[in-house]
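Why do we bother with holo predictions? Because pocket geometry can differ from the apo form. Keep that in mind while you read this record for zinc ion.
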Amino acid sequence: MLRAGVDLGGTKIQVAIVDENDQILGTDRRPTPTTGTPDGVTDAIASSVKAAITAAGVDLAKVVGVGVGGPGQINVEAGTLSNAGNLPGWMITYPIVAELSKRLGGVPVFLGNDVQVGVNAEVALGAGREYDSLIGVFCGTGVGGGIVIDDELWIGRGAAGEIGHIQIMAKGGAPCGCGRFGCMEAYAGRAAMEEQARKWARKGRRTDLFKIMKKKEKPRLASGVWAKALKKNDKMAHKLIDRAVWALGSGIGSAVNLVDPEAIIIGGGLGIRLGQPFVDSIREAMIPHLIKPDTPPAVLLAELGDLGGALGAALLVKGIKVTDPALRTGAAAKKAATESAKKTAAKKTAAKKAAAKKAPATKAAAKKAPAKKAAAGTSAATKAPAKKTATKAPAKAAAAKKAPTPRSSAAKKAPAKKAPAKKASASKAAATKVTTSKAAAKKSS
Ligand SMILES: [Zn+2]
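The structure, written out:
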């Protein structure tokens, strides 16, 4: 049973073909058309999916579904993507599900919000799998976010997580794509940073940013261009990245004061490209904004890299989507979300009660262990989960006690590539989670 995941961004289309264990069999990546129509973009997506299938050495007939994480407003029931300002000609409502399915021989297509699927992927398979609460901050063309509370993506009435539009400059702020001023995205989104760089360049300020862009044959200041410019010590690039870090520190700090999550995960094209040093700088910039600076959350780099969005989109097909109730509209969504929250709460209380009976040191392990154990038992691919779980568990215990100081060691930990077995166990855990939300959704419909 193979699935395809499509990460549809303003800059690139990334496709991954995965098997039932979320192992990647083939990928394709190409620039998103910068001109044209949604039809043209959908053609490009279809070509990319076909290329990834070829790269995987499989047949389209083996693919049971295609998940798409798209930027803009998603209507899952209608299968439409609307107001995707970073895509050409997409300020309309476009039936992407039907159109893409038509281009791929009728294979079912599932739709999700790009940032939400990225966060889901990190929660199920990546840096977030050890945490119950976190905020994902994805720095790409814009700055998107996702809030996870009690292992569930919090979507509010459908639009939660717009961390990029936290206003960090009340007066004289930079113009944001949303039409307002002083939003975090106006400083830390790649589109806004490029606009500022062009403005400065027009005024005669020196930079190699555009030279590097041309040399790399990119139509825009892609993340790799910024990384290269920083490496070459380009003054303007440093200034703009410093500004972005300052904005992110301020905005994320405000979000932490509100939500008090265990972890912050920094992802997105820019976040991943600039990597750990960028994450460390953001953490440093965040601390002064915290009401409780002595207990900051762990600030982590997204682990799944450039493929996180595509992996998350592929999860949509599996039914592993914390967003499930979220993406519905109106009363059904609210009801589903409430039901799901209730179930989670009940589950947690039961888990806590069970854990209370054990020795305090193993509390955290007890909480997460069942899913992991089950996974270990089922798969021959199990190699080192026991060791890894053991080393990760203390951090989790610390988290449970809300004593984040030791977390910084976890935060600093290099985002190692995951062993396959770990992934399997993570997805199993996610699968368990989803049952709850799915059941809730069913109940409410
Ligand atoms: Zn804004």
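Residues 165, 176, 178, 180, 183, 185 surround zinc ion (CB under 6 Å).
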